[in-house]
């Protein structure tokens, strides 16, 4: 459960909860919601480092998904960090509610958020780690001035809105460019990549610089989410990269 804002932000507050990296972040978007507890338990048993929760508003993206109630329910099902990806307009109206529900990490889209410094500060005041998400066609340069304030950058490797889409290949060089920029500038931001990740490309995405790798359909399509998560997590281990 993320901490809530006090009267004034506490400059000495402990760092928000982020997973050890590299980490697999199963996205529950394509899980069986009638057996959500089983899906969460299976992915956790398979070695998930956190859970990625996709919040869509039917405006910023053409799909509607979950709100704080479901985040709160998932918070009761797992002790792993909850990574809430807000694909919504006017995110400032909802950030505190998601933090109260248990979000440890909250990302907003650059394309949907005109006053990013204010929004990022709000996330941090709520005790969550702050991230900004970029669509595949949004240039990295848009983050130049806010990168030092971010706990993570979420690079979309599909256009947001749906699970099960194909990884857009040009994002691979974007991951590498961001990794270089983070390292050269001494920024602390981790790099999260989201969309179209599976056993065929997870190693390359990691090697280009991703710290947190989101996978939805690669974990939850089919009958063995534990085995599918385990296969992806094993590919993230250095020994397996040869
Ligand atoms: C897409 C979401 C993703 C999605 C990933 O809008 O942000 O998190 O659920 O699903 P896969 O891994 O199936 O592309
Ligand atoms: Zn997502």
Low-confidence spans? none
Q: How would you classify the helix and strand content by structural class?
A: alpha/beta
Number of domains: 1
CATH superfamily name?
Answer: Aldolase class I
Mean pLDDT rating? 94
What would the CATH topology be? TIM Barrel
CATH architecture: Alpha-Beta Barrel
Q: Based on DSSP secondary structure assignment, what is the total number of beta strands?
A: 8
Range of helix content:
25-40%
Q: Total helix count? A: 8
- The arrangement of helices and strands along the chain is EHEHEHEHEEHEHEHH
Our measurement of the CA-to-CA distance between the termini, rounded to an integer number of angstroms, reads 38 Å
Q: What does the largest sheet look like?
A: 8 strands, parallel
Strand sequence of the main sheet, in spatial order?
Answer: 1-8-7-6-5-4-3-2
Nearest-angstrom radius of gyration? 16 Å
Relative strand content: 15-25%
CATH class: Alpha Beta
| Ligand catalogue | D-xylitol-5-phosphate, zinc ion
Task: Report on the architecture of this protein.
- By secondary structure, the chain is an alpha/beta fold.
- The chain has one domain (23-241): Aldolase class I (TIM Barrel).
- It has eight helices and eight strands.
- The chain has helices spanning 36-45, 68-77, 95-101, 116-125, 171-185, 202-208, 217-220, 225-236, and strands spanning 23-26, 51-56, 82-87, 105-109, 129-134, 152-156, 190-194, 212-215.
- The protein has an eight-stranded parallel sheet.
- Helix 4 links the parallel strand 4 and strand 5 (129-134).
- Helix 1 (36-45) runs parallel beside helix 8 (225-236) and helix 2 packs parallel to helix 3.
- The longest helix has 15 residues, at 171-185.
- The protein is globular.
- The N and C termini lie far apart (38 Å).
- The mean pLDDT is 94.
- Bound molecules: D-xylitol-5-phosphate and zinc ion.
- D-xylitol-5-phosphate is lined by residues 27, 29-30, 52, 54, 85, 158, 160-165, 194-197, 214-218.
């Amino acid at each position: 459960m993320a901490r809530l804002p006090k009267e004034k932000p506490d400059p000495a507050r402990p760092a928000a909860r982020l997973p050890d990296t590299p980490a697999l972040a199963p996205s529950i978007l394509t899980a069986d919601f009638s057996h959500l507890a089983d899906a969460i338990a299976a992915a956790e048993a398979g070695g998930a480092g956190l859970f990625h929760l996709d919040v869509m508003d039917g405006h910023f993206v053409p799909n509607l998904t979950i709100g704080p109630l479901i985040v709160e329910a998932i918070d009761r099902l797992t002790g792993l960090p909850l990574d809430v990806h807000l694909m919504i307009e006017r995110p400032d109206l909802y950030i505190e509610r998601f933090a109260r529900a248990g979000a440890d990490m909250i990302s907003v889209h650059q394309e949907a958020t005109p006053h990013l410094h204010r929004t990022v500060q709000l996330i941090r005041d709520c005790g969550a780690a702050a991230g900004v998400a970029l669509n595949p066609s949004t240039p990295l340069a848009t983050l130049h001035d806010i990168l030092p304030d971010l706990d993570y950058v979420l690079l979309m490797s599909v256009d947001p809105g749906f699970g099960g889409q194909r990884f857009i290949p040009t994002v691979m060089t974007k991951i590498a460019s961001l990794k270089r920029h983070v390292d050269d500038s001494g920024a602390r931001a981790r790099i999260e990549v989201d969309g179209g990740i599976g056993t065929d490309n997870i190693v390359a995405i990691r090697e280009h610089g991703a710290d947190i790798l989101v996978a939805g359909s690669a974990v939850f399509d089919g009958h063995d989410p534990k085995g599918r998560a385990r296969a992806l997590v094993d590919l993230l281990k250095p020994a397996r990269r040869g």
